[in-house]
Request: fold
Amino acid sequence: MSAKLLDGKGLAQTMQAELSGQVAEFSRATGVRPGLAAVLVGDNHPGRVYVRKKQEACAQVGIESWLHELPSSTTQGELLALIARLNAAPAVHGILVQLPLPRHLDEAAIVDAVTPLKDVDGFGPVSLGLLAAGRPRFRACTPYGVLQLLQRNGIDVTGKHVAIVGRSNIVGKPLALMLLLKGADATVTVCHSRTRDVGAITRSADVVVMAIGQANYLKADMVQPGAVVIDVGMNRLPDRRWTGDVDFEPVGAVASAITPVPGGVGPMTVCMLLYNTLQAARLQVGAGPAEPLKQI
Ligand code: NAP
Reply:
């Protein structure tokens, strides 16, 4: 494989060390420790693993975290009541509702119920609306992590064609909005399941971001030589290994840079959640917004 490996795990560790210093400085200045409340409902095994990783990362950087684990029988009213309590709790600066929720719950209504000042996942309508308006407050963690991974590896997207495959509210759509912000200045195409010829679009792109959840979908003949390939996909193979949406080895022979799965975008997502939680604490204690991250 000739492509440069974009090491999200290593970068996340570097950024978390930076964040530890910022959290300590904030706590010294304000007497407040940033706090993140995680909510996990039902028998969601991958969700439990993700929440545990997020809590471990919080502990590493000095952010307090609490886990509210509720049974699958939880009603919409009970979950909304918990969100209301967390919205009102002064020690809680960020609220993370681990998705997906059990099918009987109205996910959109729960996401909407998180007060916008604590929406550290950046999925809520106010966070997305502010981003669309060009005035981002909390940027969705996975796309924010993708941008940091590009930027801190010296990959400038200004004027470049970025093809995003996948248009979900948590990855593809907010990523497109972030890439369109002044300062990022990319030219963006978003593909989805009704796009006629995904390969024709990805072949014309300088940067391809895959976020569809289909193992090894992006083949080498769908990528132009020298393109940068970012793999957001997380797919569990029958032998329990994780793989992305990119056919890694053959695409790595064509691309100039590529993210591994695991160890690429995933750790960056956790890192950006920590950053957003510090940002939320700063906003709530009136300490002003955190220093914006470079160029984004
Ligand atoms: P999602 O909500 O299921 O959305 C998938 C998107 O892919 C949809 O927009 C869908 O199009 C599109 N799509 C599906 N099949 C397609 C095809 N054959 N050609 C073109 N587009 C296609 O998924 P998500 O939540 O965005 O997650 C996507 C992947 O990223 C999953 O593997 C997930 O596990 C992973 N993920 C990773 C992280 C991380 O931190 N690494 C974070 C979040 C998600 P339609 O809209 O037309 O249905």
